[in-house]
Amino acid sequence: PAPPRPAPQTCPLLLRVFTTNNGRHHRMDEFSRGNVPSSELQIYTWMDATLKELTSLVKEVYPEARKKGTHFNFAIVFTDLKRPGYRVKEIGSTMSGRKGTDDSMTLQSQKFQIGDYLDIAITPPNRAPPPSSRMRPY
């Protein structure tokens, strides 16, 4: 018989992903009072899933996102403990057909918590993504 497989270090979770194809994240009021945007994808994954792995899962669902140069901007949407409603935290980006600095970033490394949502703003290759509200130092 085969030797027993080591237990995984992280347990799978149901990741609720919301995508836009206009390069902008959803507005936070679209997540209020139990509502969520209609573009929901449900992905079973792990806390150590990388942004690159999540990108390829999204591309399986949206063939148009496979075009080289398509830009994916990831953000975590989470409940604000200090005031009612949700907050968004941009965590990184990937691009179809190109290696990037954020590819190996994991959900866990960005303090993702089970119950948070992932919002992915997808920008087609011919359109530059809107400038981020804040520049990230590299």
Automatic annotation (TrEMBL):
Cite a single GO MF annotation: transcription corepressor activity
Q: List UniProt keywords, sorted A-Z.
A: Repressor, Transcription, Transcription regulation
Pfam families, per database record? SAP18
What Gene3D superfamilies does UniProt report for this protein, alphabetically?
ASAP complex, SAP18 subunit (3.10.20.550)
* InterPro entries from the UniProt entry: Hist_deAcase_cplx_SAP18, SAP18, SAP18_sf
Cellular-component GO terms for this entry: nucleus
The annotated subunit structure for this chain is:
Found in a mRNA splicing-dependent exon junction complex (EJC). Component of the heterotrimeric ASAP (apoptosis- and splicing-associated protein) and PSAP complexes consisting of RNPS1, SAP18 and either ACIN1 or PNN, respectively; the ASAP and PSAP complexes probably are formed mutually exclusive. For the ASAP complex, the association of SAP18 seems to require a preformed RNPS1:ACIN1 complex. Forms a complex with SIN3A and HDAC1. Interacts with SUFU.
Q: Which family does it belong to?
A: Belongs to the SAP18 family.
Q: Which PANTHER family match?
A: HISTONE DEACETYLASE COMPLEX SUBUNIT SAP18 (PTHR13082:SF0), SAP18 (PTHR13082)
| Name of the molecule in the record | Histone deacetylase complex subunit SAP18
To which species is this protein native? Cephalopterus ornatus
